[in-house]
Write a structure and sequence with these properties.
Helices cover 48% and strands 13% of the residues. It has a 6-stranded parallel sheet, with helices on both faces. Helix 2 crosses helix 7.
Amino acid sequence: ETFALIEQEHISHNEKATVGIIICGWNMPEGPYNKWPRRTEEYKNFIALIRYLIDKIGVRVCLMSHQNKVTADLELTKGNDHKIIDEILNLLKNDYAPEDLFTLKHFYNAAQSKTIIEQFDMLMSGRIHGAVQGLSQFVPTAIIEYGHEPKAHKHRGFAKVYEVEEYVCNPADEQEMIRVATKLWEDREKVKIHLHSQIPKVQELANYTFRLLHQLTSEGK
């Protein structure tokens, strides 16, 4: 099943590495997160990042949504993030071949999304759940902060726990995103080694927290 999933989405490629980018409405420069339509200007920093990754680093880019809506029949369908991805693809459709810039053809649950993220050579995620799925599978991952108010502290918090604070970037700063992407790409093997040693510590911290919560709730009974 895993092999079929990877094949149907054309994630694996023999010649080029693949970088996944997860973008959501919170990463955009203007709120609210579900604002629609958006001005072309609002996409310019992400377009610059994508151009840099493809043209300068020489990778393929997969724009991935980590958020789906559910229909009345409990079927997964496009959510707000898909609109942003589709618009970026539309703005760049004449510049890159589908093999170099693409999105997923189908909708996936959390487990399937985790399988897809595992295949990326590098990930830049504006949704923290996607970032954690990458980090927990030793995928070199950059965390993209919110682009407008209210700012969230969870991005820096998770980065601190995994000890990857230097790979957090502000989507309002084009050069910072490119700088972080470049550094992460250059450091990717070192980051994998770091995550292999750090994740057991994160797991132990999570277990300790659950034990503490269990103790506190048991005492209250």
